[in-house]
Amino acid sequence: MTSKKFSKCLIVAGGASVSRRLFMKLIKHGFSTIIAADGGYHNCVKAGMVPHFIIGDFDSIGHIYKRKTSGIDLIKISRQSDTDVEKCIKFAISHGATEYILLGGIGNRIDHSFANFGYLLKYSDKISGKLFYGESFAEVCNKEVTLKSVKSEIISIYGFSDKVKVTSQGLKYKLSDSLLSFGKRESTSNVSIGREVTFRVKNGKILIIRNKESFFL
Questions:
Q1: In this structure, what CATH number is given to the domain that contains residue 188?
Q2: What does pTM read for this prediction?
Q3: Distance (Å, rounded) from C-alpha 166 to C-alpha 199?
């Protein structure tokens, strides 16, 4: 197993296809290490990208594992207590990464898709994660943060505790120590009114879903 350290990485799962254009934009943004989660290798191939690592139990790409593809570190982890994406996140943490972006994390398997959102929350104290899909991306906030935005950006906020309270500045529908708990009260399709949005979060974590292009502001 390689001892190479890296600070930012792309983790590529086997869900929806990922455009080469998005790969290249994220690489230029510093996410230059690519980790394929088993079948996520196929998404890399479709986009003309070569991952640095393939990690998983290799149930989807056993033929690649057997032929020892040149230039790719193949790391077989057979344990079934973790999904292949989770194995990749743990690998990234162990190699010094502080940020990851998950691509291809939404697909035909609702359970895997739901779990991938859960990993953003589960590992947020160890690594900053974002999940990109379609025209949106999701990230976690558990403190005070000011985000760059554009007027009329759609921003949705979900809490994951009965105690989590959210205060906002810069949103059309203001939150003021508002109790947000998924399944009880959400703030779906809120709207930015300017170039910045500030959140103050107490007693838990929130998941923020916003426009993909805002990541590059």
A1: 3.40.50.10240
A2: 0.94
A3: 7
